[in-house]
């Protein structure tokens, strides 16, 4: 939670100034400089007792972050 939280990173607003949407989408981002530390934390997390669907969601986020790291890009998220 200290390194990465969905509610802190992926819904923290746009990374550039734009008008705030009235309702949706919810916008968030992870900067390139944050990705390595987040991946290290997620890779070392013990997920044995975690629900299968939650583990799948974590794996999906890890995949997105790995692609961003490999291409030296930030991650921007939109939630509808």
- Strand tally, please? 2
Strand order of the largest sheet: 1-2
Q: How many DSSP H or I helices?
A: 3
Order of helices and strands: HEHHE
- State the low-pLDDT regions, or none: none
Major beta sheet summary: 2 strands, antiparallel
| Estimated helix fraction | 40-55%
Please report the distance between the alpha carbons of the first and last residues.
Answer: 23 Å
Give me the secondary-structure category.
Answer: alpha+beta
Overall residue-averaged pLDDT value: 88
Radius of gyration, CA atoms, in whole angstroms: 13 Å
Strand content: 5-15%
Shape: globular
List keywords for this structure.
80 residues; alpha+beta; two-stranded antiparallel ribbon
Quick description:
The protein is α+β, with helices and mostly antiparallel strands. It contains three helices and two strands; from the N terminus they run αβααβ.
Structure, explained:
6% of the residues are buried. The chain is built from three helices and two strands. By secondary structure, the chain is an alpha+beta fold. It is globular, with a radius of gyration of 13 Å. Helices cover 45% and strands 12% of the residues. The model has no long low-confidence stretch (mean pLDDT 88). Strands 1-2 form a two-stranded antiparallel ribbon.
SSE order and pairing:
Blueprint: H1 6-9, E1 26-30, H2 32-44, H3 52-70, E2 75-79
Antiparallel strand pairs: 1-2
């Amino acid at each position: 939670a200290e390194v990465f939280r969905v509610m802190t990173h992926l819904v923290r607003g746009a990374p550039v100034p734009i008008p705030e949407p009235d309702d949706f989408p919810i916008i968030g981002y992870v900067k390139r400089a944050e990705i390595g530390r987040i991946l290290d934390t997620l890779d070392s997390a013990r997920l044995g007792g975690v629900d299968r669907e939650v583990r799948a969601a974590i794996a999906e986020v890890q995949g997105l972050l790995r692609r961003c790291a490999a291409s030296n890009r930030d991650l921007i998220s939109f939630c509808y």
